[in-house]
Every structure is written in C-alpha cells, then in structure tokens.
Amino acid sequence: GPQRPPCPQNAQYGSCSLRKMGAMEALELLDQLVDESDPDVDFPNSYHAYQTAEGIRKAHPDKDWFHLVGLLHDLGKVLALFGEPQ
C-alpha cells in the first residue's frame, strides 16, 4: 500500500519515556481537561468513560473486552494536558 508520512507524535511519544501511568490515573487526569468537543458538561470526563463502559456491558454482557474498550476510548485526550491540540 501507499507509504504513510512520518508521524512526529510517534517520535515524541512512541518510546513512552515522558511519563508512564496506569489507566485509572489517566482517567483521573481526564477530569482536569475541558473537552473542546463538549465544553458545557457539568460532570467529570471520566464519568463519560464509565457511562460508555456500563452501556456496553448492558448491551453486550458477554464481551468483557468491549467493556474495557468503552472505558478506555477517550484516554488519548490526556495528551492535551501535555501540550497536544485537542
């Protein structure tokens, strides 16, 4: 297939050497972020992650991997706290 251009974020973050954290710490960090795509919400960003995971659990109780994906789907937004644009 066609070759993709180099990704500067891969060079910056690919080694995971800036900071390491667990998923729960990243979820807590999300609560410090005002999400530009939804700036008027009055509940923490982590609440959306839990809502999503719970909704998936109810709809697909047999797919535990899918519950986890619902919980983690927005974790990349924490990069905005480290200078990346939203």
From TrEMBL:
Cellular compartments annotated: Cytoplasm
Family per similarity comment: Belongs to the myo-inositol oxygenase family.
Primary location recorded for the protein, binned into one broad class: cytoplasm
Pfam families: MIOX (PF05153)
Name of the protein described by the UniProt record: Inositol oxygenase
Pathway the protein contributes to: Polyol metabolism; myo-inositol degradation into D-glucuronate; D-glucuronate from myo-inositol: step 1/1
GO MF annotation list: inositol oxygenase activity; iron ion binding
Annotated gene: Miox
